[in-house]
Records
---
Amino acid sequence: MGDGYQQRRHAHPAQAQHHQGLALHRPARVAHRAVSPKLMDYELRLYATAEYLERRGTPTTLEGLREHYLNYYIDTALTADKLDDATSLFPPMRRSVSSTSIAVQFAATMNHAGLGLLPVFLSEQYPTLAPVLHDQFSYTSEYWLVGREEALRNKAVHATVRALNDAAANGNWFIPPFDC
């Protein structure tokens, strides 16, 4: 990094943080001058706990989802059309917990609040989650890395990008269990 970068960094700390940032996004509009390589495709599938399924019954068809609660994104807060499209094959469902955070959706599902439409790479690590209608429904979406070129020259950001790319290429995601 040249002296000009160092001067900018010390002149305005918030601006320096912006230059060192990296975001993980689903398909959406990308900022002007951003670099945005695709990280990976991933699958969304329905999951629930055994306790929830014992209490509400296990749906055997997509139409049967009508009688169940869904933990998913807030409809009005969705900025990625693909995530909105993911539920287009479902009948109208009541929402149990709606959040912009996948961690909140996951916690709600783990705490028996409904069916979660969750990433397979996250859910398969938790034996307490039972697959629901996996023979009838799967939805593929994408994650993209988004950052400005100058941010990608930062050693820490570059190392993070390399680790994410390695994990995506090898399918080697280890996400420690959430404490639900």
---
Amino acid sequence: MNAQQSKQLKGTTGWTVRKFASTKYLQYNIAKDKYLANANLRKAISLSKTTGSTAVRWKAMVAAERALLEDQGVTPLYYTNEATLVKTSVKGVVFNGAGSPYNFKEAYIK
């Protein structure tokens, strides 16, 4: 087995979460890296885990991502995004956060 294969088996070339949760990617960096000591990152992640407000949680996750990128704790290779247009007369379309992106099962035209 060469060095690359050995690293892949150890899981050091990449990481993903089993359950869809945006904060898991950010939490991983403070839980596993003893050298990453950024108070702003820890504060933002703590706020994102404890707030009941979706808007506050999102702002805290954005702040945590910025703090992580400033320290170059990780280097994002890509950032997925998608734009979707749905005619205003189409109702009942479900946009999922994980798995199949759309569900037209209950969709109808009004």
